[in-house]
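Human: We require from you a standard protein entry with sequence in single-letter code and fold as tokens, and nothing else.

Assistant:
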Amino acid sequence: MKRSTIGTGLILILAALLTAPTILSFPDKPSRDESTKAIRATAYEMMKAFLTQDVATFKRHSAKRTLDLVALVYEAARQDPRYQQELQNARITNADQFLGYFMLGMATQYLQAMPLTPEAAARRVANDSTVTFISDYQARITLGDSQVAQARLLGRQWKIDLTDWLKRPVLKEVKDPELRAKIQKL
């Protein structure tokens, strides 16, 4: 009799825990509207960080995959004689410094083509982009006719993944076969 009472009690407790995920600290699935707002806010912060060369904020909003790509590109540039002198002149000795240097060059080009303040350009990207959900935890971000990023929900924060958008131009520059293979696998 005791075994069946204990067994029934355990089943009831297990059933209660499984039907109430907040007790186990499972996050509630955010609504698509909430997620879209969060993705747009993250895209704004990341774009503004990019345009102002705020490496720490850019990294905070980036998916790990994007940061892994930056590290591989830095490694490729460090090994390529075409870029060694430029890195040495700019005193670039690690991937974070490389990211800042890369952001400076790209942001300068972007702001020359789009004569806006970094805040206005970031607002434009965040507001003019289309967010299309692949799942509750992943979305595509398109601007015009081009997919520029993916957003991934990690924990309770949306991270922006620019890897697929950046791979093509990066692979045109990277000559080392081993590093090219690593980049293609990302």
Summary: The first helix runs from residue 2 to 19. The two ends are 58 Å apart (CA to CA).
